[in-house]
Amino acid sequence: MKIALAQCNYHIGNFASNIEKIASGIEKARNQKVDLVVFSELAISGYPPRDFLEFDDFIQQCQDAVQTLAQQCKGIAAIIGLPTRNPNEKGKPLYNTAVFIENGEIKQHIHKSLLPNYDIFDEYRYFEPNKSFECVNLKGKNLAVTICEDLWNVQDNPLYIINPMDELISQNPEFIINIAASPFNYQQTKIRKDVLHRNAVKYALPLFYVNHVGAQTELLFDGGSLVMDAQGKTMLELAYFEEDFQVFDTDQLSNSKEISDPSREFSEIEMIHDALVMGIRNYFKKLGFSKAILGLSGGIDSAVTSALAAEALGHENVYNVLMPSRFSSDHSVDDSIGLVENLRMPHDIISIEHAFNAFEESLQPYFKGLPFNIAEENLQARTRGVLLMALSNKYGYILLNTSNKSEAAVGYGTLYGDMNGGLSVIGDVYKTQVFHLARYINRNAEIIPENIITKPPSAELRPDQKDTDSLPDYEVLDEILYQYIEQRLGPNEIVKMGFDAALVKRILKLVNTNEYKRYQTPPILRVSTKAFGMGRRMPIVAKYLS
Amino acid sequence: MKIALAQCNYHIGNFASNIEKIASGIEKARNQKVDLVVFSELAISGYPPRDFLEFDDFIQQCQDAVQTLAQQCKGIAAIIGLPTRNPNEKGKPLYNTAVFIENGEIKQHIHKSLLPNYDIFDEYRYFEPNKSFECVNLKGKNLAVTICEDLWNVQDNPLYIINPMDELISQNPEFIINIAASPFNYQQTKIRKDVLHRNAVKYALPLFYVNHVGAQTELLFDGGSLVMDAQGKTMLELAYFEEDFQVFDTDQLSNSKEISDPSREFSEIEMIHDALVMGIRNYFKKLGFSKAILGLSGGIDSAVTSALAAEALGHENVYNVLMPSRFSSDHSVDDSIGLVENLRMPHDIISIEHAFNAFEESLQPYFKGLPFNIAEENLQARTRGVLLMALSNKYGYILLNTSNKSEAAVGYGTLYGDMNGGLSVIGDVYKTQVFHLARYINRNAEIIPENIITKPPSAELRPDQKDTDSLPDYEVLDEILYQYIEQRLGPNEIVKMGFDAALVKRILKLVNTNEYKRYQTPPILRVSTKAFGMGRRMPIVAKYLS
């Protein structure tokens, strides 16, 4: 039996495009004499469709699309994911469904049982969990078809009481098929392969896994669809971070020992890099934009963002604006020029002094001689923000935000200033990781000037300012933040790890009292297990560790 | 038996304050020889604690608090809501619990069964649903204790399969007690009373209902705790939009016919008004701020926002900044002055011309002679935004956002300009409702100058601009928006209601393509069944009706 794995980059709600991708996958599979072609979870709608699922019109378009696609499956079988209506009176109105189509006809609906409802997932908001289990039969063979999380109760996941494969195995399937939309983070790829491996081994069955690929605003899907044999050995692995289509002949399973494991090994920083580049590229492409604008400060955050954008969009499509002030150091402009020259990117230098002075003059009667403080610091950042947005509006470029996760966490950024942007590229990357990214970008040649990487970080909003004036070293800061944000440890637990109690208290207070700022930041490309944004839902008006 | 209803305004994560409020309620009840004092859902943590629930430290503080409070219940019983740990290996890690305390001892844990997971609710993200049912016994009487949504399956709610009261009724309770955190919207108060009425009637039992009151960032809780007799007649009703504490002697139930129904009747606009005033007041108080700043344009949105703020914070605490430009009409400043004089609010007039000109001059070489367009329009709004934020930073005032729901929906607002603010006051109020609010504010005297209400709305960002240049009349626009946003109708269904097909298509496209703007707006006080913010979760990068 020949099975095709179609790993596509869908566009949420873009039915014309999604139908076209699926139809061309069916056609390609038929041309290669494939028996069954498999598409990923919620392929027809894109994942996650979020509250579009509450519109009956949207659901109807999904139903119409699958009917159209079914008719194209003459002489071939297909498994396609989409939301379907729950026909029962009770329960949530929808199912998260895989339809099994054979020879032009929808033969079976398989509904998802285990509905993730944590972090970035809201599936229980929309979907009723499935409670009945039946294998799909194709040419006399039983296939255990499951949807993403359905395989994630393999090792007594406390969240779930049932385990779909434990039910399906009684029907003696010959393969496991899993269609997924498994969002990337730099720890997830390994964990996911391990879960799939344990399923193959536990049930002693070959496994076909078809994942989403591409970015859906902040959520990144890394692909990496695969085939494992009944011992959990990887037989075939599809591309990461790009579309792919591969056909696997199940005859190969009989001599799997002779096939060498094709698994690609990634370093953590390589994964983050590739994910961010895909995230930028897809954001622009799917919104119909081609050009980015950003402010280049001379610091490492904007330099890394600019280099990633150049890789994603093409160097000629990244417009770098240098906006020095009286507090900018000499090297700020020189270092930035070095970067734009290395990458042959367009740039301009626009001083903020004229507009900043005008603001100071306009405000002078109302500031009543009060000393220079955060107001004037923010005023500089906001003047820059206005200049960038004016150019963005004039030319139709999308402004990229250059804030890193460390400063977003402690609130070291100016709302309506440097926190502006349509997309935050490195807002889920801690400052210490930003340095690793810079080194990775320079792995073959010096793209980011060395001085940008080695000089002490500074916001340059007052004379001789350094980040370390008010923050601990980033190695210490990032570790405390990681324990609090990713690991959700409390202050006592973090102090027990050896950190100073007063410092921990101060940092956690900064995180919690700056929730109001993060509420208004752009969507952040998610590369960690806990990114700011849809997966971290905090009250603003609260008093906890604050 | 004497039962006290303690309707308190809790502060999320502020254990010291919440414990103090509960302890003083217990003390007050004991002084009045009360048998049982009832506090609302998740009283100890505040509602909704959101992802603080994922911190074990936070849960431990809740457990410590309830132990402290239990010891204060000598000679009295209490019911108090808090999150508790699920001791079972399987399921979500927490329960949403009401503890029953009697004479200093925690006697029973009652867990919530029906967990709302729609709109602004995420309870299934944290809590395991309860599946076992037992009445509380107090002095020989069985009490059916339920938590909020537990009573909402009275009329075959399709979302839920079980109905806790159907289970508890077999134990012959004498009363129903429900502790709640039921977020306000202008349709909810009536619906909620109807649901409570139907429970009392269906089970032929008196009902004690204790609700949250106060604002938790965008969520508003209206209070209105009550006692109904076994026929569903309201015997006692607590205050709306403020704290209250009342004792009810169950002996009164025997002659309920002699007690006149104390229910307060509200008009829709009165409810919205009172809710918004509470929302502003609580936002400032709980964050520890006293003064607001806002930009007064001469239009109705900022005028209504300013008047509401004056009522919430005191007229002396609302700093109004008038920022005219070359495009401002003569009446803009005069009308604004009329308002600030009527309410005796501080104000200043700061022209944007100086800073705006400086931006134009700085940008002139880069704008390359391109015509005046959205870039220059936004530049004016952003110059105003920068001035307001500079004053906000200098003086520690919170900036109030003045956008209405109609313009937020279609994206008629400038990011980092007039969309700035710590809190959006009328962002869930359609323009047509803003006019009603203005009339309501003027019900006893002209506070908002008549000309502000009657002149045609304009952004005044280019010569002779009017909102109707590019939008339909607000009566038409708001009705289309309501059908799409609140009712979730699709384009075909809205057109069938009699609206022009091309107009409907254009409006829905504006709504969907402006999701990126709303992603970065401040939290919006929620008064409708579907507000922008946490209860409406939309993809940004999508192509549906867009």
The major β-sheet of chain A equals:
6 strands, mixed
Strand order of the largest sheet of chain A: 5-4-3-2-1-14
Distance between the termini of chain A: 61 Å
Mean pLDDT of chain A: 96
Query: Would you identify the CATH H-level superfamily of the largest domain in chain A?
Result: Carbon-nitrogen hydrolase
Low-pLDDT runs of chain A: none
In DSSP terms (H or I, runs of 4 or more residues), the helix count of chain A works out at: 16
Choose one word for the global shape of chain A.
elongated
CATH class division of the largest domain in chain A: Alpha Beta
Q: Would you give the CATH topology of the largest domain in chain A?
A: Nitrilase/N-carbamoyl-D-aminoacid amidohydrolase
Q: Which structural class matches the secondary elements of chain A?
A: alpha/beta
What is the helix content of chain A?
Answer: 25-40%
Please provide a written account of the structure.
- The structure is a homodimer of 546-residue chains.
- Chain A is of the alpha/beta class.
- Chain A has 2 domains: 2-253, Nitrilase/N-carbamoyl-D-aminoacid amidohydrolase, CATH 3.60.110.10; 271-467 and 513-518, 3-Layer(aba) Sandwich (Rossmann fold).
- The first copy, chain A, is 36% helix and 17% strand.
- Chain A is built from 16 helices and 19 strands.
- In chain A, the strands form 4 sheets. Chain A has a 6-stranded mixed beta sheet, with helices on one face. Chain A has a 6-stranded mixed beta sheet with strand order 6-7-8-9-12-13.
